[in-house]
Amino acid sequence: MAEHPWTALYPEQVPVTMQISHRSLIDAWKERVARTPQAPALAYFDGMRTVRQVDDETDALAAAFVSLGTGRGDRVGVYLQNVPQYALVLLALWKLGATALVLNQMYRGRELRRLIDDSGATGMVCTDGGLTETGQTLEGSTVRWMVSTSPLDYQTRNDARVFASTERFASASDGDLCELVDRFRGSRPDAVDLTQDDVALLAYTSGTTGPPKGAMNTHGNLLAVTATYAAWVDLQPGDVVFATAPLFHITGAVINATIALLHDTLLVLANRFHPEVAIEAFAEHRVTFTIGSITAFNAIYQVPHASREHFASMRALYSGGAPIPPATIERFRERFGVYIHNVYGMTETSSAVIAVPFGTEAPVHEASGTLSIGVPLPNLATRVVDPHGEPVPYGEQGELELGGPQVVPGYWNKPEATASTMPGGRLRTGDGAIMDEQGWVYLVDRLKDQINTSGYKVWPREVEDALYEHPAVHESAVVGHPDDYRGETVVGYVSLKSGASATEAELIAFTRERLAAYKCPRVVHIVADLPKTQTGKIRRNVLRESPDTVLDTPTA
């Protein structure tokens, strides 16, 4: 295999190509159990589980799932926050050859039911507090059984910032997870001969460009991503991984949970993300690695007492979901002494596949001012192509196209969408990109987000980055609004930092000092908050299609 130019940028410990020897995630887990059975595996506030305890409890849980009629190939919904039970359910389902349907905890009613109906899920593990509503939503669906669990389990600290109540609720009719573990303790399911082609996770796309589609993340996909990324960040035995990203998101499920479970590291969980709780966990557990959205790190930045001491043990800090403005990275490093590395991945690539090499600072694309998202990780076939699928020269804009063992085989029961998005097995990401001669990749936004004003093409990211440089700006988003004269007008939306002030005219003038006139927003709206997905991505589509929903929200 010919080496690509980007391999010259690889950290010393990263090979150009990597061979994945395990047949399944469970094979990799069993090797860890054999190596370090007494090592800590899961931490949750003041609670701790060893590798052996996790193995025994997931054997019991898998046996309980079998008793409920679950077997190889079945889809089971996992409708939980970042709690130890999430990791236990994943391992238990994989031991059966079943598929974990990861479900956003914010979904309710029709949103949740749509994914259940599409996937044909036969079981559900959910939080006891929302049991009645969840049961009503699933009535008449394919779900045959429900098991509930309490976020209060596996710890005794009961931090009021995370747990609004210490009330215990009645369990589901098919049982409470901890009670089932106790009832089936000592049991284990029959061994299943899994392969890399078995589907481990069914993760649905966010649906911002149409109905959500279930990406079939296989054992092979997850093994490829966790192996390459562990090498990328030089994950070592004894490292401590904090789950910043929600585990229902592909980043959290793979690069927080699965990577920690398959390596000799401790996975630290703290329920739903809370910035103060997170930094305290960093210090208490001596966290060495985490990955999360820039929204989460912005929230930490807003904590008045957050300091370098909280990050004293942090070795590798990565952020995915959206490219980070250079000014944000610099402000964060100046205050906390750690550099946020960019990383890029999709639900269809089982998370991280392009990243800034650990210990390296990302360059800025001179023409656009965009910070690089990194270079392709081992085994990833990467091209920037034109609308006909033909590669464009280095330095030219096109669509990012990806191939390799990280790319899922397709969407659940959607062959036409699979053929359209993954022709020949290569993923057409829909992301506008530039790759330079060294292999650095720069995102210039989703192709559909490009603004055409008076015949000029404007990439929102460049304008947003200029707004981020203003000291009062907390978050920014830029979209095109219809304009009879120009075709589209560049419009900015910003939220301000706590206690900061700025006028719309001031922000427009600020961009004019940094950008060509046609790129500058003609209108800037200062809003209380920008619309986001549950994983922290700013929803430009809402600002384009329903701006009144944001403008009607008071800023004070």
Distance between the termini: 58 Å
**CATH architectural category of the domain at 24-194:** 3-Layer(aba) Sandwich
| CATH class term of the domain at 24-194 | Alpha Beta
Structural shape: globular
Class of secondary structure makeup:
alpha/beta
Strand order across the largest sheet? 2-1-10-9-11-12-13-14-15
| Number of strand elements | 24
* Average pLDDT metric: 92
Percent helix among the residues? 25-40%
CATH topology of the domain at 24-194: Rossmann fold
Question: SSE layout and pairings?
Answer:
Elements: H1 25-35, E1 40-44, E2 47-50, H2 51-67, E3 75-79, H3 84-96, E4 99-102, H4 109-119, E5 123-127, H5 131-138, E6 145-149, H6 177-183, E7 199-204, E8 214-218, H7 219-232, E9 240-242, H8 250-262, E10 266-269, H9 275-285, E11 289-292, H10 294-301, E12 316-319, H11 326-336, E13 340-346, E14 351-355, E15 375-376, E16 381-385, E17 397-403, H12 415-421, E18 427-435, E19 441-446, E20 451-453, E21 456-458, H13 460-468, E22 473-483, E23 487-496, H14 504-512, E24 523-526, H15 540-545, H16 548-551
Parallel strand pairs: 1-10, 3-4, 3-5, 4-7, 5-6, 9-10, 9-11, 11-12, 12-13, 23-24
Antiparallel strand pairs: 1-2, 7-8, 13-14, 14-15, 16-17, 17-18, 18-19, 20-21, 22-23
Structure description:
This protein is of the alpha/beta class. Among the domains are: 24-194, Rossmann fold (3-Layer(aba) Sandwich); 450-551, ANL, C-terminal domain (GMP Synthetase, Chain A, domain 3), CATH 3.30.300.30. The chain is built from 16 helices and 24 strands. The strands form five sheets. The chain has a nine-stranded mixed sheet, with helices on both faces. Strands 6-5-3-4-7-8 form a six-stranded mixed sheet, with helices on both faces. A four-stranded antiparallel sheet has the order 16-17-18-19. Helix 2 crosses helix 3 (84-96), helix 7 (219-232) crosses helix 8 (250-262) and helix 9 (275-285) packs across helix 10 (294-301). The longest helix has 17 residues, at 51-67. The N and C termini lie far apart (58 Å).
